[in-house]
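Sorry to interrupt, but I need a hand with the structure work. Could you add the entry underneath, on a fresh line?
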Amino acid sequence: MRVAIEPALLRWASERSGRETEDLRAKFPKLGLWEQGEAQPTLKQLEQFAKATHTPVGYFFLPEPPVDEVPIPDLRTVGNRHLGRPSPDLLETVYICQQRQEWYRDYARSTGEPPHDFVGSARVEDEIVATAGRIRHALGFDLEERRQLPTWTDALRRFIEQADALGILVMVSGIVGNNTHRSLNPEEFRGFALSDAVAPLIFVNGADSKAAQMFTVAHELAHVWLGQSGVSDAQAAQIPEQRIERWCNQVAAELLVPLEVVRREYYQAAALRSEMDRLARRFKVSTLVVLRRIFDAGFLTWDAFRHAYAEERDRLLAIPRSSGGNFYLTQGTRLGKRFAGALVVSTLEGQTLHRDAFRLLGFSRLETFRELGRNLGVS
């Protein structure tokens, strides 16, 4: 059975997927003919093409290509210009998180969990240092405690635990769902926030470095305090054009690396390299964040900062990143312990169907579900 498809839809799906044309044509030898309208795929071939391009198969029956838009404010920019079409990976990740948030919102209401008064409690007119102090106090974020943690991974884990304990769903993943063949690109986005009074959610691109993830968590927390959803490309060195992003960057930097402490502890007589490394270890943040704060404190000129930042960014990009780890520990991070624990409990109590739980978790084996529960301590 052949399926009549508008050729423009096939070309759109190929371009949207981000895959090389040669790769797709190697997998689908008649793709060129389909795109020219000289041949038509079978239904099975269309389904395979839809899977290969991460496109919902129903899209191919539309009269013309749809316009892809992120369903929350898109605050990402490059050179203060908005980025182009969002990838299927970004879109699906937002959709997955929206579904999880919707489930948790209903669950929280059913258990009598009250709204969180910190959501939307700040305004972009609020003073940066004072706002960062309020967030730090709410989290129980202690700079000296962080200083004593041995690694950036430990510091990030503790940071996420503090946000989770406050009632924020924090999900960190470097892939789409559980598909290890679909890695998220930190150059496209670093995180997003889904603001909600009952179920505020933060997603962090886990393909980024641990130190960079730290800044993303802080940036998205600022979004939650504003009560503003949005997908971000949070980078300490940026001065975004959008007022909200600029404010969130400033609050994140002050939350993690208070300017007063930098001014007190920076050794002007020491080499910049050694001070970057020392302060990065002290605050458990990226050396890029430290560089920005050294500049903010008035110890670097703008030209010296830009030069040092470019060199350090290139150095960090050349460092390979580790991946893998225990599946169930990874799942707790990807799903967020608050969300995953609630879903397992609700399912075991019969309030949520296993079918719905498996859809939200991204797997389908009962034993995997049970083992996840055991690792979360809720089975």
